[in-house]
Amino acid sequence: MKIELAGEYGYRRILKTSVPAILMMLMSSVYSIVDGIFISNFTGTKAFAAVNLIFPAIMNVAVIGIMFGTGGSALVAMIIGQGDRQRANRIFSMLIRVMLISGIILSAVFFIFIRPVSEWLGAEGEMTDMCVLYGRICLVGTPAFMSQMAFQSFFMAAERPQMGTKLTLICGLTNIVLDALFVGLLGWGLTGAAIATVIGQCIGGLYPLYYFSSERNTTKLKLVRTRTDWRNVGQACTNGLSEYVGNIALNIVSICYNLQLMKLAGEDGVAVYGILMYIGYVYASVYIGFNLTIGPVVSYNYGAGNRDELKRLLRRSLLILAVLGTVLTGISELLSNPMAGIFVSYDPALKALTGRAIRIYMLSFMICGINMFVSAWFTALNNGIVSAVGAFTRTIVFEMGSVFLLPALFGLDGVWFAVDVADILALVLSTTLLLGFRKRYGY
Q1: What is this structure's pTM?
Q2: CA-to-CA distance for 49 and 55, rounded, in angstroms?
């Protein structure tokens, strides 16, 4: 099935077009969670806490793929909208090459220094060894993971989002089967979980490289030989700066959460936060998939000068996201205890603590989808600076500040409330940015 970037996007078309990307992100989040489920239930709380301690640090490298993907696809889709497909292919190819080289170099550096990083994050003794073991295996596959994340955006720019969905399904099933084999059946613990993750990532990251450079490729995008134009690299990275800054900031904030939780609740607190991150990743994947769909459409219409369609896309997207936020929040409030039981059914006290944390923390998803969309909106308009300011302020200023201030007033509950307060403040900022730039972009 081919999806066109041109034409009017009514509610039905928006939903129909966004379903493949949303499913792709949902499946990606689910198979990421599988590691946590197997590790928690087969290797215990300490190993589970170790994974959740080191994983945000690894993601600081991996999110470069998101920056190149979102920023690059916005630039490429805009150029396609302007009618210059050859230039779009050259920029697409150059960005993929630069991203992969950067990923290999950064992964190698992190591989060397992962032990002191783990210790700085608060790991001690056996937990440090677990962080190093899991982290180093995952870093081997990090460049492929970066490629997988980048192509999630480029699949939509190529008008083939369903290809990303199918590929993600294959990766997810591979990871689940290998987790069951390596962790559940063979008892390889963290080593097995990490190997299963890397194999899935390699499938997801390497196949698109083959497809877009092969004769089987019938899309608008092709990997071609081209020279490096650092001006276009800089423009793409600036476009995707908000996604990069947002994810880096999120990982930094996650580290702060873990530091606070180690003081307030020890390893159990870190384990609970890890569960919140897994569930939150599933919820956020719905919004991310939606933004991956709408972003290239916005960029295309911006490049084509179709301001009326931009107005319609903005109005309809905000309404859809408000409905989605209500549904997701309702699910978390009703099913908090069963969600907690998936991970820690073996510990009633930890399960009760997790259930309460879910009910508080997941309230933020009522409005965070709108905040994420506003950031993606400005990225699609090729204004990465404004997008980055919104993303940075939401996480580093609002959420990090809340993480350190609220526990002094509300104890452990203050940690869970931090994201709720941050998203309320961020919604005010998002509204201000949309209104402030309305005349400039004509929406």
Answers
A1: 0.70
A2: 10
